[in-house]
Design a protein that fits this description.
The chain is mainly beta. It starts with a helix and ends with a helix.
Length: 605
Amino acid sequence: MAIAASFPTIRPSRLLDFATSGVLDPRITFSRSTTATYYDGVTTAKAEENLFLRSQEFNTGWTPTNATITADATSAPDGTTTADTLAATATSAGGTYALQNINFQTASYTFSLFAKADTTSVVWLYSRNAALFGYAYFDLSDQSTQAVAGSSTTPTNLAITSIGSGWYRVSATFSVTALNSGCGFGVSDAKGATDVTAGASMYLWGAQLEQRSSVTAYTPTTTQPITNYIPVLQTAAANVARFDHNPTTGEALGLLIEEQRTNLLTYSADFSNASWTKTNTAVTTNAIVAPNGTLTGDKLIENTTVLSSYQLTQTVTPKPSSNPTITIYAKPAGRNWIYLNVFPSTPNDFTNDTRAYFDILNGAVGTVTRGTASITAAGNGWYRCSLTASQFSSSASANATCVIQLATANGTNSYTGDGYSGIFIWGAQLEVGAFPTSYIATTSATVTRNADAASMTGTNFSSWFNNAEGVFYVDAGAAQGFVPVLLTTYDTGGTNLIRIAKESSTASSTTVVSVRSYTSGTEYVLLNSAFASGKFSVGYAANNFALAASGSVSPPDTTALVPVMSRMTIGWDGFNTARQINSTIRKIAYYPERLTDANLQALTA
């Protein structure tokens, strides 16, 4: 009740509610000469999908014709004993197959299946649209394919991929025009015909049907079909402001302001490229829908080398001049842990390296050595893992090597692989700085994202600003960097200013939010309060400056002059052309009179 009673009775003369509006006030000038990434809180993309029921239980929910299905007959590609056998009960020209009816829309559908030869090596997929049929044949013995139109359109995108241990994943895209239809799979003696000899059999597992024209990572089903969606990492054009959101909750975070950063890793989303060295691993490209909504996520798969490490590495030349941060998006694909390591190399210096384990199933950081680490959910089971070095820069080595490694548990990155387990990965980044920033995509060369800058000048500022007295209210995220600035008002020469920033307090050895005021280059005010992301208010008038944060107000400064100011920068320090907040600003409000200290306190409570 006391807080409500102390809330200001006047309205602000300028309200910049970035989180709610999601747009810039037209009085604000914004620049950033490159593209940059963010989440808009709205856009999603279809990720994994499987419209079949009982995708691994062909003896349940599937209608067999001229076939016997034996459940759980052998080891499947995921190591479980869940693969079934489909065998012909008699010699037939009509085929040995199993069918499942699907309520189709008119669209392209991709049908995929895992198959392993038994007494026959030919498997076929087909789509039935009323009386129309299309067939896709695959011979596992020589990995050849054949499309047959039948009485329907010819299937396209036929593919056969070795999974290991004699298993192959076969897939084809069918153009469907009937609403009530079906899909099936069968075995035959040779490509191009459904003729089959009694007893011909094959091991089958993992049927998947997706409404799109390409195959993605297999997603098992039981009694219900599955369609997953993923929040899409957006790319803002040059000189377009970013209004960031929490990717998993959709919460609006406000205007994102970041400093300049460079991704020093090349081919940041193509781990099959030779710039990434594979050790006891293989990479399946474009295996899963990535955090940017495209089919560009790769799968890193271990081999069966005994008691080994399974990893990707890339070396950066020259070594970063100061401590770097490495990040990677990761998602489980049989392995639930990932290990990151960045170390000075040439020569290798493991006394100054940084290491960390991440649980990418539960979103937790494990053991960290010589650095700091964080993990952030990116939606649909993806996490962004981040590791910042603490003593990397003290090494005399010439280069830096980044390691992305599979692990089986916290602290366990050496084991005997099974030949099929791994992780999905996307968006690797190495940047110089003590914290991660938004993802910067690269291909054959490093890429720089330039700094964000937002400001108000001229009458866009003076029309609502009272130089004699007033109050600034700022609601901001957790600022990061070297003296990150929430807001600055100043004159053209920079000798008169009021700056609200995060900095270290020498007196208390803590991080504080500070207010510094300069008149003709002389500092008159330094107020500070314990810093946390949240709400701050600063009141100023001649001989009456005060700062409130988190519901408490500092003792006022009763000796300060008020500088003459003509412009304002938001989330950075225009006078120093840097010191970006590296976070978001939810709201800025300005009151054109010096409110009471109780008002300042109420604003931040």
